[in-house]
Amino acid sequence: MATECFESRVYEIEVLTPTIIGGQDKIQSFEFVKDGDCLYFINFDRLFEENLFKESFIDELSRGLSGNLKDFNIRNVMTKYNIDFRRFSKYKLKLEGVQKLSREIVPFVKSAGRFYIPGSSFKGAIRSFVTKALKKDLIKHYEDCLNQKGKVDPQHLSSNADKKVFSSPNESPFKYLQISDSSFVNPDDVAVFEIKVMNICDGQVKWFAGVKEGKTNNVDKPEQSSSIVAEGIKPGVKIFGSMKVEKDFVDGNEVVSGLKEKIGINVLAASPAEFLAEVMRAVVKDYIQREINFYSKYNQAQIVSEYHKLLNILNSLEQNQFLIQIGFSTGYLSKTVGIFFTKTHFEKLKMIDQKSRIYPDLFPKTRRIIFKNGQVYTVPGWIKITIR
Amino acid sequence: MDVILKGKYIIKCKIKAVTGLHIGEGNNSIEIGGIDNAVVKDAEGKPYIPGSSLKGKMRSLMEFAEGKVKDDLMVVAVKKGDKPEICIHMCDDKECPVCGLFGRNHGKHVTKKEFLKDPKAEGRDFSDAVIPTRLIVRDAKLIESSITDEMKENLDLEWTEVKFENNIDRITSKANPRQSERVPAGAEFSAEFVVNRYEVDGSDDGEKYLSKFIKAMKLLEDDYLGGQGSRGNGKVKFVDIEIFYKDSSDYEKDSNDLKPIATAPSLDQL
Questions:
Q1: What residue of A is the nearest CA neighbor of B223?
Q2: Could you give phi then psi for residue B126, rounded to 5 degrees?
Q3: What is the SS3 assignment for A374?
Q4: Phi, psi of A325 (to 5 degrees)
Q5: Where are the alpha helices (DSSP H) in B130-256?
Q6: Segment B159-202, tens digit of pLDDT
Q7: pTM
Q8: Ranges for the CRISPR type III-associated protein domain (chain B) (predicted)?
Q9: Domain limits of chain A?
Q10: Measuring CA to CA, which residue among B219, B182, B151, B192 is closest to residue B19?
Q11: Among B163, B170, B220, B225, which would you mutate to test the A interface (most chain A Cβ atoms within 10 Å of its Cβ)?
Q12: Using alpha carbons only, how large is chain A's radius of gyration in Å?
């Protein structure tokens, strides 16, 4: 067997649009201080440690945190006790044209306090996009899941199809695709972004403005709508990691069936890494085209123009490059095989998943859009990958 | 078979976790206040890398790299009913670099090919080829200072973090969360390996098995250690490498003043 089969290669991620990989717990308003166009995230361990004996400070802080948090302003308390919030911050992030700062912020995933893109998120996104390239008879397994009788758990609806298509983890071609966590991202390369939910109601663009008396409230003007605020990596930033795409990922072996026989696209690439890149480029092209059609229909010129930029980048890529959409707020279609579903499929899905709002005539009918200075800016999560 | 110990190569280095490292404790027991999917820890409660994990992974990688993963070259180590559950390479080829470095077991062994034909096959004894194992892998202890105060401030537990992952349903997009404990990237462990140099029936190993061991180290750097390695965890790097050679005659001397025969900050500079 050739030695190169065992060598891992470097992947480079270039962030094209703000990319958010959500962490576990939301950051609450008492955990940060806004100063100008920056947010300072407080290091409570150090704050408590160094001010433990400051008369009544800890009492006041505890009272504030256990009371109504809406009335609590940590900056005022710190100022009262002459404590500089800058000295007690873990990191600071710039607000990237955020106009409505919500009371909680979606954190970016961190390892020991350091921003990074987990290999699991990257690999999961690749797997989701690979499912969009499957042969029709394999996609049918997913369609068949919608015909299950009795009580079905929506969290595990695709399990049977996943197993039929890719087998158990031990026998899956994905065991031959290794993707490491990325290098750490400098906090200067991360910012805070504002996201709004575009909702198509009766063929018109509306903006989600929360829930009123149990009913979803959608408004015409985005400035009156709700905002989701999240930590994200800025466009233009490059990060690295290692990736191994083994021959068996494509060709399979006695135990594992390869991806080549599952893909409904004619792939010409010579090497396994280039095979993956070529599949991704083909799938992403189709996905982007569908999104352009969607946004064009609802006259979202700015987003259409953003997607045309992505399409131009996609068309100029080398054999070892591809684009993918990854992470928080990238929507139903990026993560599922729903791109192949019709009204009939969504009618069945609506019966199974009664808690979600599924509209068979148009699903999904929402998109999450990044706003900058109150204007529609772009869609989140698009990255360019180069495998070296 | 005449076997003479000519000397020992001792390889000392640090193993750096380039990404988070999850070597599971195995029984998945959950203590009160504990977390799912914990990492293995020593008696002091600090994570470490068991020598068995390192040696097992290196053996497995070498089996592939030396072309030994074939049904007639694998023996059934663990069976489940009539099915071979875990197979490893073992043979009686005295020149086999995998068996020579990582060792053979006494007793009878059934190859996977024989087992698939007849699960009751008696198997063969490789005893004629068995010699003391050349490679010894010590447990690698955590270098506490490698987990800095700044990292510690952000850890969920004293030495480790909890990573949350979601498995997303490909039809509904509903998330199934799971969590696992891992040693954060940047942590370093002090490692030591010994490669015995033998003279077998008049033939001196020389540096053959040392070279094979360095190959195994390189293969590991291009693979992963521990669990969940295909999706991020377990990328490791060998750093601050020192190789010593102790001739068997050195053990009769009073002085322990041993100088390294090679040093390098990393494998690619060795």
A1: A8
A2: -100, 15
A3: coil
A4: -105, 130
A5: 149-153, 208-221
A6: 999 999 899 999 999 999 988 999 999 999 999 999 999 999 99
A7: 0.90
A8: 14-237
A9: 9-19+111-186+235-387, 29-92
A10: B182
A11: B170
A12: 23
